[in-house]
Write a structure and sequence with these properties.
Helix content is 23%, strand content 6%. The chain is mostly helical. It is globular. The two termini are 14 Å apart.
Length: 70
């Protein structure tokens, strides 16, 4: 949970979907996500701590195939 300067409280929930193949290019919705692109895990920008935990859990899932509760 985090509180923004304007007082809004946010409870983060992160979910990862894995795909072996995909078609097309990522596209912005033009509002909430102005910059959308594919990145390799070692080229990610700084992210929120909850997002970082989710990204760190992915290799464990990939190696074991088991649900990762973090």
């Amino acid at each position: 949970m985090r509180t923004y300067p304007n007082g809004h409280v946010c409870h983060d929930f992160n979910m990862v979907f894995a795909a072996r193949t995909f078609l097309g290019e990522p596209a912005s919705d033009g509002r909430e996500n102005p910059k959308v692109r594919w990145l390799s895990p070692d080229a990610l920008p700084e992210v929120l701590p909850t997002v970082a935990l989710t990204i760190q859990a992915f290799p464990r899932w990939n190696a074991t195939g088991t649900f990762q509760l973090i």
